C-alpha cells in the first residue's frame, strides 16, 4: 500500500517520503481501517521534528486522526491510529474501543477533523473551565482547527465569544463561525481590544492553543476569577507563568491534555462523542475544512500548518 513515512527527524517537507509498505496487521483489540480521509494536526509536525512527547520509532507513518471504514464490517468511523501506523496511508489500525461512529451529518473530510478538536474544546470549556452562559470566552487562533471548534462550542454554550485571528482572511473565517467580536492581531493590540469589548472587565475564560505572547497577553485581560485553559503551544514558545500574578488577580491556570481522558475516563469521552454527534446532526457545530488535499500534497500541507498559514482543518484524501 502507499504511505508517507518519516525515516529521520526534521521539517515535514524535508523528511517525508512516499513509499510502498505492507498493510498493517491488527493486533488484539484492534481493527484494520481503510483510510477515507486523514486530518493534519500540529502534533504531526512536532513528531516529524522529534519534539513531541510521544515519539514513535523510525521509520513511521504520521497522521494521528482519520475518518475511515472498518474493513471487516464496513462501518464508517473516526479515531486515532495506533502508531507507528498513522493515517497518511491507505490502511491503518485503530483500537476497537477508540473507533467511534462517524457523525452522519459530516462528510469524510469533516469527520476526519472532528474528534480531536471538538473533544478538546468540549473538555476544556466544560469539564475544566465550566464555561457558563452569559460569560465571555476569548479564543486564540480562532480560525485554526482547534480554535474554530472552540468558537462554535462557546457559542453553543451561550457565551459571548471574542475571537483573535491573524490576518484579514482568518478574521473573516472567525466571523463566519459566529464570533461576536473579532480581533485581527496583526492590526490591533488584542489586550486593549478585549478590555474595550468587555468594559475593562476582561474575559471569563481564555482558550489558548498558542502559548507565548498569546498567553502572556491573556493574563493582562482575564477577568477576576477568570480561567485560562492551556491547550498547546503552536506559537513555539512555552510560557513560564508568574504565579504571583495569578494570585493577585485571582485567576486560574488550567492544563488540558485531552488524551489523558481516553485512559482515565473513557466513558466520559464516549458520552462526549455522543453529545457532539447530536450537535453536528442539529447543525450547531461543523468542522471548518480549509483545504482538501490530494495524497501527494501531504508534506506541503504539513508545512503550511507548521507555518501558521492554515485556515480550519487541512485534510488529506487518499
Q: Radius of gyration, Cα only, in angstroms?
A: 19 Å
Unreliable spans are none
Distance between the termini: 11 Å
CATH architecture of the largest domain: Alpha-Beta Complex
Main pleated-sheet profile:
7 strands, mixed
CATH topology grouping of the largest domain: Quinone Oxidoreductase, Chain A, domain 1
DSSP strand content? 15-25%
Q: How does the helix and strand content classify structurally?
A: alpha/beta
CATH class of the largest domain: Alpha Beta
What is the H level of CATH, i.e. the homologous superfamily of the largest domain? Medium-chain alcohol dehydrogenases, catalytic domain
Name the helicity range.
25-40%
Order of helices and strands: EHEEHEEEEHHEHEHEHEHEHEHHEHE
Net shape: globular
Q: State the domain count.
A: 2
Count of β-strands? 15
Q: How many separate helices?
A: 12
Amino acid at each position: 500500500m502507499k504511505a508517507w513515512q518519516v525515516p529521520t527527524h526534521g521539517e515535514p517537507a524535508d523528511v517525508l517520503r512516499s513509499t510502498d509498505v505492507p498493510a498493517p496487521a491488527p493486533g488484539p483489540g484492534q481493527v484494520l481501517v481503510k483510510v477515507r480521509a486523514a486530518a493534519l494536526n500540529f502534533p504531526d509536525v512536532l513528531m516529524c521534528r522529534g519534539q513531541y512527547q510521544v515519539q514513535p520509532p523510525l521509520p513511521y507513518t504520521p497522521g494521528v486522526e482519520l475518518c475511515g471504514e472498518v474493513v471487516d464490517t464496513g462501518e464508517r468511523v473516526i479515531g486515532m491510529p495506533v502508531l507507528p501506523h498513522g493515517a497518511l496511508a491507505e490502511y491503518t489500525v485503530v483500537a476497537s474501543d477508540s473507533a467511534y461512529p462517524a457523525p452522519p451529518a459530516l462528510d469524510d473530510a469533516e469527520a476526519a477533523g472532528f474528534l480531536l478538536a471538538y473533544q478538546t474544546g468540549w473538555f476544556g470549556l466544560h469539564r475544566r473551565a465550566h464555561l457558563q452562559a452569559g460569560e465571555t470566552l476569548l479564543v486564540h487562533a480562532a480560525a485554526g482547527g482547534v480554535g474554530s471548534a472552540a468558537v462554535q462550542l462557546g457559542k453553543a454554550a451561550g457565551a459571548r465569544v471574542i475571537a483573535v485571528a491573524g490576518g484579514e482572511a482568518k478574521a473573516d473565517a472567525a466571523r463566519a463561525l459566529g464570533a461576536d467580536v473579532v480581533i485581527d492581531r496583526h492590526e490591533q493590540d488584542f489586550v486593549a481590544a478585549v478590555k474595550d469589548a468587555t468594559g475593562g472587565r476582561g474575559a471569563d475564560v481564555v482558550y489558548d492553543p498558542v502559548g507565548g505572547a498569546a498567553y502572556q497577553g491573556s493574563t493582562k485581560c482575564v477577568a477576576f476569577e477568570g480561567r485560562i485553559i492551556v491547550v498547546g503551544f503552536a506559537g513555539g514558545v512555552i510560557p513560564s507563568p508568574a504565579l504571583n500574578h495569578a494570585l493577585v488577580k485571582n485567576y486560574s491556570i488550567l492544563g488540558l491534555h485531552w488524551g489523558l481522558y481516553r485512559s482515565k475516563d473513557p466513558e466520559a469521552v464516549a458520552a462526549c462523542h455522543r453529545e457532539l454527534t447530536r450537535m453536528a446532526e442539529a447543525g450547531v457545530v461543523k468542522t471548518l475544512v480549509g483545504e482538501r488535499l490530494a495524497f501527494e500534497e501531504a508534506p506541503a500541507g504539513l508545512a503550511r500548518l507548521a507555518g501558521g498559514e492554515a485556515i480550519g482543518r487541512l485534510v488529506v484524501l487518499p
